[in-house]
Amino acid sequence: MEMPVPNANVVSRKARLVERLRDVLPSDAVIDDEFETRAYECDALTAYRCPPLCVVLPRTTEEVSAVLKICSDMGVPVVPRGAGTSLAGGALPTADSVILGVARMNDVLETNYDDRYIKVQTGRTNLSVTGAVEADDFFYAPDPSSQLACAIAGNIAMNSGGAHCLKYGVTTNNLLGVKMVLMDGTVVEVGGAHLDASGYDLLGLICGSEGQLGVVTEATLRILRKPEGARPVLMGFNSNEVAGACVSDIIKAGVLPVAIEFMDRPVIRATDAFSGAGYPDCEALLIVEVEGSEAEIDEQLGVILQIARKHDPVELRESKSAEESAKIWLGRKSAFGAMGQINDYMCLDGTIPVSSLPFVLKRIGELSQDYGLDVGNVFHAGDGNMHPLILFDANKPGDLERCEAMGADILRLCVEAGGCLTGEHGVGIEKRDLMVDQFTPEDLDIQMKVKDVFDPSWLLNPAKVFPLKSSETRRAA
Ligand SMILES: Cc1cc2nc3c(=O)[nH]c(=O)nc-3n(C[C@H](O)[C@H](O)[C@H](O)COP(=O)(O)OP(=O)(O)OC[C@H]3O[C@@H](n4cnc5c(N)ncnc54)[C@H](O)[C@@H]3O)c2cc1C
């Protein structure tokens, strides 16, 4: 993966930069030791690594503002970072950049049950947002599988989703307002604690902007009352294509499960061994969950099971207890970790119209044979949000390059099928050079003009989202 040539002028002034950062931050909040900065050399896309110039870990919006003023003044690139779980290389540093990590900014600032919102510092982890309100029977809906670790900061930047987003929407549908610091240190507030805002939908622009427009320090999030009950069903099928067709038929029928998750044989095997979820022995597995009162659950499942039976399932198993449901979800949520235990892999994230699932799954199988690399599929099928995991050997020369080429072909396939390059993981460095397959030069130009407004020097999160050549030309202008 090509990265920009580090700015020698910036690198040569590291000592002065660190000195100035130490003037505005507590001493434990600036890390410039060569070995300690290594902990920040990559995110969850571990194939690409580069230690940053230094790392800062502020605790307040004021400290973030002071850091950005200094970096702006000295022309130093800044890479915002939450928990570093990006699978798209979104938080990968450049050798001349400062990592600005918000992990220490994790306070709950306000909880309001009457108006159903919570205000947090964005370093707070996704799961601990629900943790702060669950005793009062509320929850925060977007639930990435990484929710134990990932921060609201990264969720906002990537517009993250999760298994239960089929019903509740992704981050942008659950975000009411943000406080954000621009590259020159200016603090702005966008949105509030209410639905929609006057004027342009800047909140919609910021959510999913991948650290390109500013550093988000506070967020107001919608919280919801916990449903009365929920019940998952396991559905086993004889092939990926048949399971894909079943998903398409469920969506077409107009019932709205809270989640429809898909796993194929390699993932079922690895996950079951890892978590003891008790999954059936089959080629493809769906977890379909509905929620509501007992009567609502029975009615929705009646329709869904009738559809499933038409696809000759090898197994239909309703959960009988809260413990069984938890086990079923533990398996799915640990799927990436389970696959990581047995192989190096690259996780893709393309989205397609649900009706093309059978065709796209078949083509992925063919590409796997063409490239000689195995693929595991585990994804949010109800949203058509696919996550092919391409297995490769990081120690075998040429394997990573083959994996990258195959990944690019799969993502182009998603675009050709009427979908897009990313459903929830973002573009990062992983897909930046494929943006030309999705957008015309004019489409890309209008997006880059938005960055011109927020970050005219193009110092925030360099080399991400836009094709490298285009962003470097813009930075130099
Ligand atoms: C095992 C595993 C499972 C996953 N499952 C899912 C899933 O189900 N759904 C899903 O959507 N994703 C999933 N992901 C991907 C990842 O967890 C999400 O993209 C997550 O939102 C990243 O959050 P983070 O705090 O780790 O962000 P980071 O990785 O630190 O950063 C991600 C991006 O956010 C930007 N950023 C960070 N902080 C700020 C800030 N304060 N202001 C502005 N920009 C900022 C960074 O510059 C970067 O571009 C998974 C990852 C793993 C490793």
UniProtKB/TrEMBL annotation:
Its cofactor is FAD. Signal peptide: none annotated. InterPro entries: FAD-bd_oxidored_4_C, FAD-bd_PCMH, FAD-bd_PCMH-like_sf, FAD-bd_PCMH_sub2, FAD-linked_Oxase-like_C, FAD-linked_OxidoTrans_Type4, Oxid_FAD_bind_N, Vanillyl_alc_oxidase_C-sub2. It comes from the Bacteria. Gene3D superfamilies: 3.30.465.10, 3.30.70.2740, Vanillyl-alcohol Oxidase, Chain A, domain 4. Transmembrane segments: none annotated. Residues 48-226 form the FAD-binding PCMH-type domain. One of its GO terms (molecular function) is oxidoreductase activity. Keywords: FAD, Flavoprotein, Oxidoreductase. It holds the Pfam family FAD-oxidase_C. PANTHER family: GLYCOLATE OXIDASE SUBUNIT GLCD (PTHR42934:SF1). This is FAD-binding protein. It comes from Litoreibacter roseus.
